[in-house]
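Run log // design_07
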């Protein structure tokens, strides 16, 4: 008896986790996108979708549905990039099914639609200084927050990588540590002088032995320390760091609506402007493909301004 479409999805998700070594977060999103399609198709056919039902007209109709879909949070239409994620997940599933020698539409026939141009926000040196000095380092909270901002800019970490750090990962002697990024790929990142000093001060001022590098400093404490000896319940969340950055952006008065990812962009931009080669920056960012890193080159290539100045002249 042929497998159901939902069982094909389960096989694909297992493949992503075990063979592709994708992160749990990525597998979870694939799960969401694919079951969204399965439910939509079931409503279209009045039954569970079959592999033979996957045709270009059906997929085009699904893309039209996505273009008219509104976010449950913002009540606004889905961004073109988000719409592509849904279709990319479907195409990845079909590609997997092709490898199983199943009769299914060719994955190359699934069109993704034109991608939106990516806007790249980063902070200049003066803006970074304003952001960092907005933290009141006389308090433990302010010191922690300054350390978070400094580490984000010094290492180019994703915020999810930052909140997963533990104290024993940091080598203060060599000023470096390893981090596991997307695709469970491990890379080495480095701390500059300011980040090292601020992080060291923050840890020395803490009076706990909790494992997480960055912890919340407010909230109810567990009555029984044996329930959470490592302090995992005290670990800062991704959303907490996002709110923290928003707070200091507003407090500093900088004109850029910066996020933790803006500091990652600023890290890459600073390196390339200073002459670092793009392959090294790719490694430091943990990008799988060089094409992802190349989004920075149009704002960091120092030759472009000289080319414009030399050749784009008008006779007066």
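design_07 sequence
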């Amino acid at each position: 008896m042929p497998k159901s479409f939902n069982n094909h999805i389960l096989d694909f998700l297992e493949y992503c986790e075990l063979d592709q070594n994708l992160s749990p977060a990525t597998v979870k999103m694939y799960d969401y996108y694919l079951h969204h399609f399965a439910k939509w198709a079931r409503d279209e056919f009045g039954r569970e979708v079959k592999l033979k039902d996957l045709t270009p007209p059906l997929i085009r109709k699904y893309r039209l549905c996505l273009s008219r879909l509104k976010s449950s949070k913002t009540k606004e239409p889905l961004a073109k990039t988000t719409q592509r994620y849904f279709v990319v997940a479907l195409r990845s599933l079909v590609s997997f099914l092709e490898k199983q020698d199943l009769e299914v539409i060719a994955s190359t026939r699934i069109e993704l639609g034109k991608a939106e141009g990516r806007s790249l926000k980063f902070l200049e040196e003066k803006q970074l200084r304003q952001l960092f000095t907005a933290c009141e380092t006389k308090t433990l909270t302010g010191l922690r927050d300054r350390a978070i901002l400094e580490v984000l800019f010094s290492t180019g970490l994703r915020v999810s990588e930052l909140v997963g750090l533990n104290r024993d990962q940091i080598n203060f002697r060599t000023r470096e540590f390893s981090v596991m990024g997307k695709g469970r790929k491990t890379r080495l990142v480095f701390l500059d002088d300011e980040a090292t000093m601020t992080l060291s001060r923050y840890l020395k001022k803490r009076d706990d032995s909790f494992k997480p590098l960055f912890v919340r400093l407010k909230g109810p404490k567990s009555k029984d320390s044996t329930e959470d000896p490592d302090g995992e319940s005290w670990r800062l969340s991704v959303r907490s760091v996002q709110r923290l950055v928003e707070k200091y952006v507003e407090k500093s008065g900088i004109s850029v609506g910066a996020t933790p990812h803006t500091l990652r962009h600023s890290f890459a931009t600073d390196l390339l402007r200073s002459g670092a080669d793009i392959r090294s920056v790719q490694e430091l960012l943990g990008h799988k493909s060089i094409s992802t890193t190349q989004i920075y080159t149009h704002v960091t290539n120092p030759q472009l301004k000289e080319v414009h100045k030399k050749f784009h002249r008008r006779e007066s």
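The first helix runs from residue 5 to 18.
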